[in-house]
Design a protein that fits this description.
Elements (H helix, E strand, L loop, with lengths): L1 E3 L2 E4 L14 H23 L1 H46 L4 H39 L5 H53 L14 H20 L9 H17 L1 H15 L8 E4 L2 E8 L3 E5 L5 E5 H5 L3 E3 L9 E9 L5 H13 L11 E7 L4 E9 L4 H21 L34
Antiparallel strand pairs: 1-2, 3-4, 3-7, 4-5, 5-6, 8-10, 9-10
Helix pairs in contact: 2-3, 3-4, 4-5, 9-10
């Protein structure tokens, strides 16, 4: 029988205990008695003003302790980040003898600093949680909320611990899969590095196709490893993880169309040998030496101190003029066009252009420069001078083109032939020429 202040409340009978549960009538009676005592004490506490004052004093004291603890934690974290991280950085920089060591010396201190920052925030949140549960437990009205909060946190921690324990075997298998993929990519990189030593003129894998093939093979290996390890990743079977995977897949499929197009164009450029590194080409209005053909862009160095990156889809969709294929052995073809009126003898124009080409040391005389007339336009004849240059440095190529244009101007001025491209209504009163005596008018110098 359970009594309250001598008054019988209820009786626990042997039949009240559930068979097989391990409960006994005495145990059920004690449990009920404790619950009644708790309710009775809380009812008295609600009517006790002194208990309210004690709870408020304890709350104030807990608030002071919370603020002081947070201040100490922040000061300690700042001290650790200022002293320990700086000492760790100096210690690692003093022992960084290899490139990997130098990279680790830059990464590890920064990682340790971020971890300290994260630990400070987690510790502050833990202090705030303890203060909140303690404060709620001080008052009978909010005590159930505090107890529920503590139970929820305990249940969450227990679930996280059990989930981590259950996920360890799967994470071990996933780590083995990623480790095998890393070893395979290292072997692949070493293999293609040895392939790059072969001549680019050999069929199949060579120095030209090896870099792109290495990227494709390594990407395929990592994608295969990710697909194999996916079922073993923690949370991979949950609805949230699947929903996130679907959302990421949609984002990639919608936003990566241009990326896939660039990669496909880069593969076609590499494997069709449309461009090679070191060749001199013109793509649209851009002219220069090919410095890189990657899966996304083709880079040209103009020789004027700039590098042009052209998307591969644009390269594949436009006409590319390659000036190096017809002149093997590090040489390339250079051409320039001038338009001269019909009153100038074409034989003289041919001779002037070839004479200008002979004054440039980098222009080869075997094969000899030659001139072709590409068009008979309404007002002028188009002459194209074609030469071969023995230079493979972009800056030298740019200078040779400039020197050739200057030599053409000097030759035509010297022999009194105008370069006018005459869109005119009447001939000028005097020929548009620069006398040789005026070639070095200040600020030009005599040696220019």
């Amino acid at each position: 029988m359970v009594e309250l202040d001598g008054q019988p409340m209820f009786v626990v009978m042997p039949g009240d205990a559930v068979a097989g549960s391990g409960d006994t009538p005495a145990g059920l009676a004690n449990q009920a008695s404790r619950a009644l005592q708790k309710i009775w004490a809380e009812s008295h506490e609600r009517r006790d003003a002194r208990a309210r004052i004690d709870a408020l004093l304890k709350l104030a004291l807990a608030s002071v302790v919370l603020v002081a603890s947070l201040a100490v934690a922040l000061r300690l974290a700042r001290w650790l980040r200022a002293r320990v991280v700086s000492r760790l950085r100096r210690w690692m920089q003093g022992r960084a003898a290899t490139p990997v060591g130098r990279r680790m010396a830059a990464v590890v201190p920064a990682l340790f600093d971020r971890l300290l920052f994260l630990a400070t925030w987690l510790f502050g949140l833990l202090l705030l949680f303890v203060f909140l549960t303690y404060s709620l437990a001080l008052f009978p009205e909010s005590r159930p909320a505090g107890e529920a909060l503590a139970r929820s946190f305990g249940q969450l921690a227990a679930d996280a611990f059990h989930a981590s324990a259950h996920a360890l075997p799967g994470m071990f298998i996933a780590a083995l899969i990623f480790l095998a993929a890393w070893v395979a990519t290292r072997v692949s990189s070493e293999f293609f590095a040895s392939v790059q030593a072969r001549s680019a003129d050999q069929p199949g894998l060579n120095a030209h196709t090896a870099p792109a093939t290495r990227h494709i093979v390594n990407a395929a290996l990592w994608l295969f490893a990710l697909a194999m390890a996916y079922p073993y990743l923690p949370g991979s079977h949950t609805e949230a993880f699947r929903g996130l995977s679907v959302m990421l897949g949609l984002m990639v499929s919608i936003g990566a169309a241009s990326v896939v197009s660039q990669i496909a164009s880069g593969i076609l450029i590499v494997y069709t040998y449309a461009l090679k590194q070191g060749e001199y080409v013109r793509i649209q209005d851009h002219e220069g030496t090919v410095s890189e053909v990657s899966l996304f862009v083709t880079r040209l160095r103009t020789g004027h101190g700039e590098e042009i990156a052209i998307p591969n889809a644009l390269v594949l969709g436009n006409v590319t003029r390659n000036f190096s294929r017809a002149a093997p052995g590090g040489r390339y073809v250079l051409d320039t066009t001038v338009t001269i009126g019909y009153d100038a003898p074409w034989r003289q124009v041919h001779a002037l252009l070839t004479e200008a080409a002979r004054t440039i040391p980098e222009i080869m005389q075997d094969p000899a420069p030659y001139v072709v007339q590409t068009a008979l336009s309404d007002f002028y004849v188009e002459y194209k001078l074609v030469v071969q240059v023995g230079a493979d440095v972009p800056a030298t190529r740019a200078r040779v083109a400039s020197d050739l244009h200057a030599a053409i101007q000097d030759a035509f001025n010297r022999h009194g032939v105008q370069i006018m491209s005459p869109h005119y209504e009447a001939d000028p009163a005097a020929p548009k020429l620069v006398r040789e005596a005026d070639w070095h008018t200040p600020p030009a110098r005599q040696g220019d």
